[in-house]
Amino acid sequence: MKNITLTIACLFLLGCKSEKEAEVTTTVETSTAIPVENRNTSNSSRTAVSGKMEVYLEDLKTLEDTSKGNPIEVFQELAEEYAAEKIDISKDNFAQALKTASKYKHVYITVKNHTIVKIKDIKNCKPSGSWATCVPYATGYIKKGAMQYREDYANNIIGRPDTQQRVMYLFH
């Protein structure tokens, strides 16, 4: 009798967890449309990423080795050329942008020329009231004189929604 009661209790707890996960998924899917600049058309140079860009995509810490000016600006210039998609993000479209990002291997977000993050795992997320969605875990840099490395949920690195330009770059 004890075993049956224990089994039923475990099933109940697992069932409750599944409902909560479904709730988060629903939250992510209910957002407004986003302006997306789709770049993966017939241009074959978009699929072949340059050597330097490939290094950045595999290891964000290589940004520290950039000797030419602001490393975030160097990344942005390369990303403008090689990203499969580029999305200007805001509070209104961030949830939809993350849904789109789940189809890509590499997801980066820059804030003006002072912050860059690499999304580590879109499924490992934490609800954010200011972004109105579940925000994924990321690693990145904030440039305050020197580059300062951060590992945290993306909202804690990119800040709250405001008028600063935030761009999501998506790579295959």
The largest sheet, given as strand count, sense and whether it forms a barrel, is: 7 strands, antiparallel
DSSP helical segment count: 5
Q: In percent, how helical is the residue content?
A: 25-40%
Order of helices and strands: HEHHEHEEEEHE
- How many distinct domains? 1
Given as residue ranges, the uncertain stretches (5+ residues, pLDDT < 50) are 17-47
N- to C-terminal distance: 54 Å
Cα radius of gyration in angstroms:
19 Å
Class by alpha and beta content? alpha+beta
Instruction: Please give the number of β-strands.
Output: 7
| Main sheet: strand order | 1-2-7-3-4-5-6
Q: Provide the residue-averaged pLDDT.
A: 77
Strand content: 25-35%
| Apparent shape | globular
Structural write-up:
The chain is an alpha+beta fold. It has one domain (31-171). It has helices at residues 2-29, 51-58, 71-82, 94-101, 154-158; strands at 36-38, 85-89, 106-111, 115-128, 133-144, 146-153, 166-171. Strands 1-2-7-3-4-5-6 form a 7-stranded antiparallel sheet, sandwiched between helices. A hairpin with a 3-residue loop joins β3 (106-111) and β4. Mean pLDDT is 77; it is low at 17-47.
